[in-house]
Amino acid sequence: MVQLHARTKNVTSYRVIYGDTDQMGVVYYANYLRWFEQGRSEFLRQIGLPYKTIEEQGLHFPVTEVSCRYFKSAHYDDVITIATQLTSVGRATLNFDYTISREGDSASLASGSTRHACVDADGRITRIPSNLAERLARVLVTPTESTEH
Amino acid sequence: MVQLHARTKNVTSYRVIYGDTDQMGVVYYANYLRWFEQGRSEFLRQIGLPYKTIEEQGLHFPVTEVSCRYFKSAHYDDVITIATQLTSVGRATLNFDYTISREGDSASLASGSTRHACVDADGRITRIPSNLAERLARVLVTPTESTEH
Amino acid sequence: MVQLHARTKNVTSYRVIYGDTDQMGVVYYANYLRWFEQGRSEFLRQIGLPYKTIEEQGLHFPVTEVSCRYFKSAHYDDVITIATQLTSVGRATLNFDYTISREGDSASLASGSTRHACVDADGRITRIPSNLAERLARVLVTPTESTEH
Amino acid sequence: MVQLHARTKNVTSYRVIYGDTDQMGVVYYANYLRWFEQGRSEFLRQIGLPYKTIEEQGLHFPVTEVSCRYFKSAHYDDVITIATQLTSVGRATLNFDYTISREGDSASLASGSTRHACVDADGRITRIPSNLAERLARVLVTPTESTEH
Questions:
Q1: Closest among D16, D44, D20 to D30, alpha carbons compared
Q2: Which one of B14, B15, B40 makes the best mutation probe of the D interface by having the most chain D beta carbons within 10 Å?
Q3: Nearest-angstrom CA–CA distance, D146 and D149
Q4: C19 and A34 in contact by Cβ < 8 A?
Q5: Which of D62, D64, D70 faces C63 most closely, judged by CB atoms?
Q6: D129-137: which pairs have CB atoms within 8 A and are 24 or more residues apart?
Q7: Between chains, do B65 and A69 touch, taking CB under 8 Å as contact?
Q8: Is D52 close to B76, i.e. CB distance below 8 A?
Q9: Is the residue at A134 inside a domain?
Q10: In what order do the strands lie in the sheet with D63-70?
Q11: In a domain, C149, yes or no
Q12: Could you tell me the CATH number of the domain that includes residue C74?
């Protein structure tokens, strides 16, 4: 269902610069986490909840866990595609999944996930406000959907 | 057994600079992967196998998987401690474990692991040469040891 | 003169991520040099000489000097605009100028320049090949043009 | 005069990690600005004015200008030395000079400078408080001293 899919997945892109590479001639592994961040930032903007606005309301979603598997290398000047989905919304947690691919040949480069805690302005873990939780729940990818791609 | 322990674990440190932090006032999550790299680089140097020398022999150990759990935030000017252990040596793979703590209060900040493939100069996965595999196996932390700390 | 202007200036953009900021809540000063690199990379692509192609011919243009003046801060989620011009082509050197502005309010954030040496595959300084020098000379901004904006 | 010299110059070091390099096999040019920051941070600590403490008093010294000249490349695993001096203290400005060298062969790799504005908690340029200005003036390198090395 196209409309739903559009709601539940964000696709954004980035062109690799020299500064992202290391002396193996490929993108340094830590930089994929910058791409994950770009992906979830664009995901939140797409669903009408820019992270900047969330922060202005005194909430933060720091990463509490990250994992990434690397399949193929990204190279200088590659345009990479970041696909992001929200996979769970808990009382005070969120989980995102990411897939990184190369635009030119559609090669799958990496996949990963992040887990986030909801914290207030004082850094204390806090329940996700109900209006925010509801909006997030609406764009949550269901297990069935997530197996589609 | 102190002597063995000294052989199988590397402890190194790093002082957080401003450029490592983000606008939440804490170290950006991707930078922990730089610390993991510093940790395994010092681990390999400590056991007499500097990574630079390994590369000069035409071998590379790119990261194929990484995971990190974040417990507490690292802040500007903190001196953090990186403890690194080698947890497995396969035919063409290595696994390292890392724990990140703060020197001042010994707070545990994060823990993580990386998995590496052994690749040759052409980027093909290759068996770890036997002399290298043997030297690595000698410093491998056993399950019993690793549960000690 | 619009057509000439289009040839001699590249304008590209970038959205600031969290990882670019520091604990002052603004983009860390070193990251502007990443933007300069993005700017000159897009400039070279625009004139039909992608840097990747230049490198495939065994030439590199490492930075030998950089300067940057910072007027206003860039913030998280700002879309910044990078305008790049080639300001001189010597026997074995290139100079680029950059201006960084914010897309939203057109605020001028920073300006800077880089100087590059032409080096061959062995890292020796070498004369810019004449065909490359000619193509670069054609897109060189003249003093008159550069004072226009 | 040894004692004065010790007061007016800070020397600190850093070992290059893989993540600092780019595909030319050398340290990416923007990362030198991280070293400048490390240098001035250690300089301020050495003279008893850690930047963290300055910030806790509601003052910041953001960079308003930077320049760097690159002489030789820094490589993976090099231990580089950062020498930092304070070269001027104005009403609301500071200037630092930096020289980057390689520990192994003492090769001079780069030199640069930064200019800083003194801003208050609201980001407004403000006069450097007199007690701070006096302490900084005491460690200011004079033109004669700075030409010595």
A1: D20
A2: B15
A3: 6
A4: yes
A5: D70
A6: D129/D59, D132/D49, D132/D54, D132/D59, D133/D89, D135/D47, D135/D48, D135/D49, D136/D47, D136/D49, D136/D86, D136/D89, D136/D94, D137/D89
A7: yes
A8: yes
A9: yes
A10: C10-15, C79-89, C93-102, C108-117, C63-70, D63-70, D108-117, D93-102, D79-89, D10-15
A11: no
A12: 3.10.129.10
Q: Is residue D1 part of a domain?
A: no
List beta partners, residue D108: D101
Say how many residues make up chain D.
Answer: 149
Q: Structure tokens of D73?
A: 């490349």
CB B25 within 8 A of CB B75: yes
Q: Is the pTM of this model over 0.90?
A: yes
pLDDT per residue as tens, chain A (149 positions): 334 444 589 999 999 999 999 999 999 999 999 999 999 999 999 999 999 999 999 999 999 999 999 999 999 999 999 999 999 999 999 999 999 999 999 999 999 999 999 999 999 999 999 999 999 999 997 655 544 44
Cβ pair D102, D109 in contact under 8 A: yes
CA distances from B75 to B26, B29, B72, D16, D54 (A): 5, 12, 10, 22, 15
Q: Output the CA–CA distances (angstroms, integers) from residue B125 to A71, B92, B116, in the order listed.
A: 12, 7, 10
- Give the pair of three-digit tokens for residue D66: 């930077």
Give me the interface pTM, i.e. the ipTM: 0.91
Interface of A with C in 89-118 (CB under 8 A): none
Total domains in chain C come to 1
Alpha carbons B57 and C118: distance in angstroms, whole number? 30
* Tokens standing for residue B67: 């995971």
3-state secondary structure of C59: coil
Domain membership of residue A4 (yes or no) is: no
Q: Which H or E run contains D107?
A: none
DSSP label of B140: P
Chain B touched by D145 (CB under 8 Å): no
Residues 6+ apart with CB under 8 A from B34: A30, D17, D19
Structural domain including D124 reads 10-144
